[in-house]
Design goal:
Distance between the termini: 95 Å
Number of helices: 8
Structural class: alpha+beta
Strand order of the largest sheet: 2-1-3-4
Number of strands: 4
Strand content: 5-15%
Length: 257
């Protein structure tokens, strides 16, 4: 029985789950949500996930959201062994740390820098510096081992691989000064099943999304400007009416005995 995955491929966390499911050879029933149409706020979806966020996985009676939580669940339930998410407490702690680094440091820095670019502006130099600092930490992690948390592929590699792909594709980040990251990134491209295909589709769909988003944004701004203009015109009209009525009132008052 396939697992239901509510997703939108333009969201990096959704790509993490798609990539991991391919690695496990899981059958997914993909349910795409149009976030510009706010489909994630439909009552039936909020009933399923009160945080109305993507991705959301439904496996029978089990509902899981947040990409890291989803892939940990999938690794523990469907993984052939514990290499993807180790049972050993010390090894698991290292994997967890890498997961938290990705979501709390690397991905966050990318999001903060890219946010103004999304609406047609420019990223701040100080925010880009934070991206570089986060990648520098990744460089040091990968100096220790072949994969992000050791000599074996783990769930942490999937999350960070998607973030690094976003850095490459969206920000055209230059990894030349980060040889360990570059080595690992090329390794992910070669060895993670579907990595290139998912990343390529995401890039195409993201451009379509940005076109729609910016068109909607422009229409909203135009509507706001029109409303402001209408308000100013109405205010001017009321002031003119008020000015023309005042002399008449004075004249009538002067005729009083």
């Amino acid at each position: 029985m396939p697992l239901d995955l509510y997703y939108n491929i333009i969201a990096p966390p959704c790509r993490v789950v798609l990539l991991f499911a391919k690695w496990l050879k899981l059958d997914l029933n993909l349910i795409e949500m149009d976030i510009l149409k706010r489909e994630q706020y439909k009552p039936e979806f909020i009933k399923l996930n009160p945080q109305h966020c993507l991705p959301t996985l439904v496996d029978g009676d089990v509902v899981v959201w947040e990409s890291s939580a989803i892939i940990i669940y999938l690794a523990e339930k469907y993984g052939k062994d514990d290499t993807l998410y180790p049972k050993d407490i010390a090894q698991r702690a290292k994997v967890n740390q890498r997961l938290f680094y990705d979501i709390g440091t690397l991905m966050r820095s990318v999001h903060v820098y890219f946010q103004p670019i999304l609406i047609g502006g420019e990223g701040k130099p100080e925010d880009f510096k934070k991206v570089q600092e986060a990648v520098n930490v990744l460089e040091r992690f990968l100096n220790e081992s072949r994969w992000l948390a050791g000599e074996h592929l783990t769930v942490a590699d999937f999350t960070t691989a998607v973030t690094v792909a976003a850095l490459d594709g969206t920000l055209n980040f230059d990894f030349i000064s980060y040889p360990n990251v570059l080595r690992w990134y090329e390794q992910c491209k070669r060895e993670l099943i579907g990595y290139t295909e998912i990343t390529k589709e995401a890039a195409q769909r993201t451009q379509e999304f940005l076109g729609r988003f910016r068109a909607m944004r422009a229409a909203e701004l135009q509507q706001q400007q029109q409303q402001q203009q209408n308000h100013l015109s109405k205010t001017d009209h009321n002031q003119e009416n008020g000015s023309s009525s005042r002399p008449q009132t004075t004249e009538k008052a002067s005729e009083q005995p």
